[in-house]
């Protein structure tokens, strides 16, 4: 009997996975924000495989520091979203497939920045889930023990 129950559980789990995995891909295509973990972002930035951009405010950069090698560009640029996009383009160039990862405090603003750049035709932009300080998704960059440094341009 327990063998039958185990087989039923495995079959049920396989059926659920078969339904949910394609739905998650559809969600990503329909506006879901592509994400990577803080550890992935740190490794890729260190290896030069992505440009890491911290979209928090100058006050937040001074308060917690920034990830080594991250470029601080305030998403809430006083001159508006166009000015933010111009700063990003100035940093990474106009090549629309440049790998970029945005990080913020908890993952919300980095998702906004990702969608903003995607709307401008950028195709290889991700959000760092959890952000610097953590969220419901996980502990974040700082609590994960990843390196931070004092912001040099704040």
Fill in the keyword field for this structure:
single chain; 154 residues; alpha/beta; Oxidized Rhodanese, domain 1; 2 domains; five-stranded parallel β-sheet; 6 helices; 5 strands; 10% strand; globular; Rhodanese-like_dom; Rhodanese-like domain-containing protein; signal; Rhodanese-like_dom_sf
Could you describe the 3D structure shown?
The chain is of the alpha/beta class and 154 residues long. The protein has two domains: 32 residues; 111 residues, 3-Layer(aba) Sandwich (Oxidized Rhodanese, domain 1), CATH 3.40.250.10. The protein contains six helices and five strands. Strands 1-5-4-2-3 form a five-stranded parallel sheet. Strand 4, helix 5 and strand 5 form a beta-alpha-beta unit. About 17% of the residues have low confidence.
Count of discrete alpha- or pi-helical segments spanning 4 or more residues: 6
- Decide which structural class fits the backbone: alpha/beta
The end-to-end span amounts to: 66 Å
For this structure, what is the CATH class of the largest domain?
Alpha Beta
Read across the widest sheet, the strand sequence of neighbours is 1-5-4-2-3
Strand content: 5-15%
Output mean pLDDT: 84
The radius of gyration is: 19 Å
CATH architecture of the largest domain: 3-Layer(aba) Sandwich
- Topology-level CATH name of the largest domain: Oxidized Rhodanese, domain 1
Largest sheet: 5 strands, parallel
**What's the total count of β strands?**
5
Q: Tell me the count of domains.
A: 2
Shape: globular
Task: Spell out the helices and strands N to C.
Answer: HEHEHEHEHEH
């Amino acid at each position: 009997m327990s063998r039958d129950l185990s087989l039923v559980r495995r079959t049920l789990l396989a059926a659920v996975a078969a339904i949910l995995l394609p739905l998650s891909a559809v969600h990503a295509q329909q506006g879901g924000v592509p994400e990577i973990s803080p550890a992935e972002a740190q490794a890729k930035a260190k290896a030069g495989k992505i440009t890491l951009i911290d979209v928090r405010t100058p006050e937040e950069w001074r308060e917690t520091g920034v990830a080594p090698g991250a470029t601080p560009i305030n998403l809430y640029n006083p001159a508006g979203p166009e000015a933010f996009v111009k700063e990003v383009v100035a940093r990474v160039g106009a090549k629309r497939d440049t790998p970029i990862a945005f990080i913020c405090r908890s993952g919300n603003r980095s998702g906004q920045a990702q969608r903003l750049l995607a709307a401008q035709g950028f195709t290889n932009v991700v959000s760092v889930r959890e952000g610097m300080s953590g969220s419901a998704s996980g502990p974040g960059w700082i609590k994960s023990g990843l390196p931070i440094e004092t912001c040099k341009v704040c």
